[in-house]
Amino acid sequence: MVQGRGWEGAVLRLLRARDFEFTVTRAEDVTPHYRRLRLTDGGMLAATGVHPTMWVRLWFDNAGRPHQRAYTLVDPDPAAGTFGLEFALHEGCASDWARSAKPGDTIEATVQGTGFDRPDPDPSHLFVIGDPASLPAINSLLGALGSVGSQVPATIWFESGTEGLPFRTDPALHEVRHLSRGQLADRVRAQLPDLLKATPDPYVWITCDTTTTRALSSYVRRELGVRRERVHALGYWRAT
Ligand SMILES: Cc1cc2nc3c(=O)[nH]c(=O)nc-3n(C[C@H](O)[C@H](O)[C@H](O)COP(=O)(O)OP(=O)(O)OC[C@H]3O[C@@H](n4cnc5c(N)ncnc54)[C@H](O)[C@@H]3O)c2cc1C
Prior knowledge:
The protein has helices at 6-14, 44-48, 93-100, 135-145, 184-197, 210-223, and strands spanning 18-31, 34-40, 55-62, 65-72, 74-77, 82-88, 106-111, 125-130, 154-159, 174-179, 202-207, 231-233. By secondary structure, it is of the alpha/beta class. It folds into 2 domains: 2-111, Elongation Factor Tu (Ef-tu), domain 3 (Beta Barrel); 125-233, Rossmann fold (3-Layer(aba) Sandwich). Helix 5 (184-197) runs parallel beside helix 6 (210-223). It binds flavin-adenine dinucleotide. The site of flavin-adenine dinucleotide (FAD) has 23 residues, from strand 4, strand 6 and helix 3.
């Protein structure tokens, strides 16, 4: 399959991306719309190292054509060479693959583009805007910022049904504001300005659909004046 990845594969090869094959060892439905897999890493973690919110590019088959999508590692264990993946299920090749994935199934992956800059200084408050596709990254972020002796409070605007989703939030520190689809941009514009006034060192993490991510990233930086290095914004999926 490596040879048949079209222009995306060619660009990634030029960028010295590294390829691996993962094997599913376990699969479970966390909810009817959220599925968790455990996989062996084909030597990846030893070769690449690991960092919070780390993600990989997985290659799915789309009627014989390569279809590349990003997924976040859950609880990577370099010593064991294993990690998890959690799929928010919807239409699409990646979701289709995840729905039927079972122990023994394999998937090819490329590692390129992932990284994590720990905010310095640590945020006095974290503002997170996301949805089920970014829940693995949000959990990883909260874990990373809570892991070095500091306990960073967070406000999380989270779009779409949350029932049964595996949030790793601490109710004493993290407030999740549940929203229906389409409400993210308006709610954040209505609520974030006042919260920011009381926050000396904010850090804003925006990972939702590309249109909302772009709009809120520009709003937070240009209209609310949050410095670029205190905003992480990456569109996780394209609404059609
Ligand atoms: C860095 C990064 C890390 C990511 N990590 C994860 C992860 O750990 N878990 C995860 O579930 N997703 C994650 N995503 C998002 C995932 O890559 C996209 O949702 C991707 O589009 C899914 O591919 P697909 O083939 O299933 O659907 P596509 O072929 O891309 O889309 C098919 C249809 O489904 C719709 N769609 C796509 N994604 C979503 C969604 N999330 N919610 C609702 N509708 C959608 C599209 O609008 C389209 O109509 C991540 C994205 C990035 C950039």
